[in-house]
Design goal:
alpha/beta, 40% helix
């Protein structure tokens, strides 16, 4: 089983959406993956309601999620790390400078849809679906 950590800023929107999509895609394809998510800078509160909304539109029923801090993760247990932007990669590499994780990190280049309207959430979802469908089927 390959363990992959998906990271964004607050672990409320992109990384949660990506985790749900990735785990669903792995399950549908019988791929041996486990995806978890975390945030670099948690700001409290609940996950973004629009995540469940746009996932339900493609028949993915997301589970209730409480934001998780990267500080509560053992980074060494993951085979790979997916981040939403280059700044997050730089932050993680700086934070974990005692271990070399740069080669384990893939930058997805996914914009944050938070407070930009439902269309932005759908675009984010579709970008993540496309990425994880290719990732899971190419890596099987």
């Amino acid at each position: 089983m390959k363990n992959i950590l998906i990271v964004c800023t607050a672990n409320k929107t992109r990384s949660v959406m990506a985790m749900e999509i990735a785990n669903y895609t792995a399950w549908v394809n019988g791929a041996d993956y486990s995806f978890k998510s975390a945030g670099i800078a948690l700001v409290g509160g609940q996950p973004d309601e629009n995540v469940a909304r746009v996932l339900s539109e493609i028949s993915i029923n997301s589970l209730p999620h409480n934001p998780v801090s990267i500080n509560s993760c053992d980074i060494t247990e993951f085979d790979a790390i997916h981040v939403m932007n280059q700044r997050q990669k730089i932050t993680l590499c700086s934070y974990y400078n005692a271990i070399d994780i740069a080669d384990k990190i893939t930058v997805l280049n996914v914009d944050d849809p938070f407070s930009k309207g439902i269309g932005s959430y759908r675009n984010c979802r579709d970008t993540l679906v496309h990425f994880y469908e290719r990732f899971v089927t190419n890596e099987k």
